[in-house]
Please model this.
Amino acid sequence: MVFAAVLAGGIGSRMGNIDTPKQYLELGGKPVIVHTVEKLFVNDRIDEIIVLCPKSWVAHTKALVEANLPAGKKVSVIEGGETRNGTLENAIKFIEQNYDVDDDTVILTHDAVRPFLTHRIIGDNIDAALEYGAADTVIPATDTIVESGDGKIISSIPNRNSMYQGQTPQTFRLKLLEQVLGELTEEEKGTLTDACKIFTIKNRPVYMVEGELFNIKITYPYDMKVAATLLKGKDSDD
Amino acid sequence: MINQVYRLTSPGVIDVACTTPDITGSVLLRPLYMSICKADQRYYQGNRSKQALKSKLPMALIHECVAKVEFDPTGTFKPGEIVVPVPNTPTEDDDVIAENYRLSSYFCSSGHDGFLRDYVDISPDRLVRVPENTDLKIAAFAELISVAVHAVSRFDAFSHSRRDVIGVWGDGNVGFITSLVLKMLYPQSKVYVFGTVYQKLSCFSFADGTFHVDRVPDDLYIDHAFECVGGEASRYAISQIIDRISPEGSIGLMGVSESPVSINTRMVLEKGLRLYGSSRSGVKDFEKTMEILSQNPQAINYLETLVGDVVTVRTVADIHKAFASDISRSFGKTIIKWEK
Model:
C-alpha cells in the first residue's frame, strides 16, 4: 500500500502577523491544504491519506476534508507531533495501528503548503522509494550557495553544479523509515529535522527525484502572491 | 486541486499555467500518449492570422490523445481504464445538426485548452473506451481516424449507390487514413489514391492503385472522391476531381485552407455533382473508430506505419523538441509520450 502523509504541523510564524496557519489560507477559493490533499486524493497509486496538523486545528481540518472531497478514498486527520520527526512517528504509528504493513508499504510525506505538486513527481517518488528505499524531491540550485559557520564570514562556497534545493515529497519504504528513525538518539532527534538527511547520515541511499520550479513552499506572504499569480496563469515559466 | 496546464502563449513559447478543476463532477484523465496535428503545428509556428492568434492564445495545444482514467467521482469508469477523450464538446442538444457542426460547440486546442495538461478534467460522456491490447501509440491519433470515419459516414449518407471506384486526393496522413477506412468499410470498391510524392504514395500498399496527379491515365474515371489536400493546392485537387468524376458523383472536402478556393461550378452543375464538407468528429465517430480498430487487425498494421518519432516529454523543452521533430516530418505522426 502507498500512504500519503500530509504534514500540516507548522503554525506559520514566518507569515507576518497572520494568525491563521499558512496551510489554511485561501488560494484560488480554497484553503491551500485542500488543494494539496486533493492532488494526492485523485492519484490512483495512493491508497490512503493521513493529514497531520496541530491539535487545535484537527476539527477544522476534518471539516474541510468533508466539505471538499468526494467519496472514494479514506482521508484521516490526526494530530502531528512537536517536531517534524515526531509528526512522522505519529504517521507511522497511526498506519501500523490501523493497517497491515509489509516491506513494500510506502509512505509519501508532503508539505501541506506545497499545493503545486504534479502527477509525475508523485509517481517518480513512489517508484524511487520502492527501488532505493528513500526518495527526495529536488531541483538544481540556481543561486550560489554560501556556507558560514558564524553567520558573518563565509567558510566555504560549494560548487553550484552539485548543489540542489530540497522540496517535497520525501518518500520512504515505511519499515525502513521506522528503523532509521529508531536509530536516532534523543539529541539527534532534536537536531536532525529532515528525514532524508537522517537517511544520508545513516549511510542509506536517497534517490533524487526531479522537482519543479513551481512546486513552491508557501512560507512567506510573498510566496502567496507568487502562488496566486501561478493560478491566474500569468507570467509563469518552467 | 491545482492542475498544471502547458499553454502556448505566443508562437513557439509554452508556459505553465495553473487551473483549479472541480474534482467532484469531472473525470480526471492522465494523458499517456498524444499526437501532434497540423492545426497544432500551425498555432505553434504562428501560421494563423494575427486575429486568430490573438483571440485563441494562450491555450494548451493537442487534441489527439489516449489517456488513463485517474479518478472518476461519477463512477462511470474505473481508475486505470484506457480511454480516448473526444475534443469536441457540445453545449446544447440538437436532433438535426451533428455535435461537431453546432456553432455553440467548443473544441479543445481551438480556443479552449487542449490536452497538454497534468490531468484532463472532462465529462464522462466525452470518453470512449479503447479496446484491450490496442497499441496506445495508434490510439493516440484515434481522433484523426475518427475524422476520417466521420467523413466516410457522410459519404455513405450523401452518395449514390454506384461505388465501384472511389478516388482519394492527398498523399498525407488524412489521405492515408481516409483511404484505409474506405478500404476497410467498402472492400468491394476500388480505392485509388492521387498524390504528388512517389515516396509517400508507395506507402499506400492497401490501395487498389496510386497515381501521381501529373500522370493519371486518360481513361480513368471515378464514381466519388475525397479531397484531403488542403491549403493552396486544394484548388488544383478539386479541379482535377471535377474533371475525373463521373456524373452525379459526390466530393467530400476535408482539406483545410486559410484562403478561399475557386471551384469550376460550371462542371459541378453540368455533371450534377454533390460537394459536402466534413470536419472534426463526434462521440459516435469515435465509437465506430474503436469498432473498426478492434475488428480489423490488418488496419492496425497499416496504421503502425504512420507512427513516426515518439518523443518522451518530461520538460517543457521536450515539448519544443516534439514540435521541432514534427515540422521536419512530411509523412506520419509525431507521438508524444507524456511523462511531464
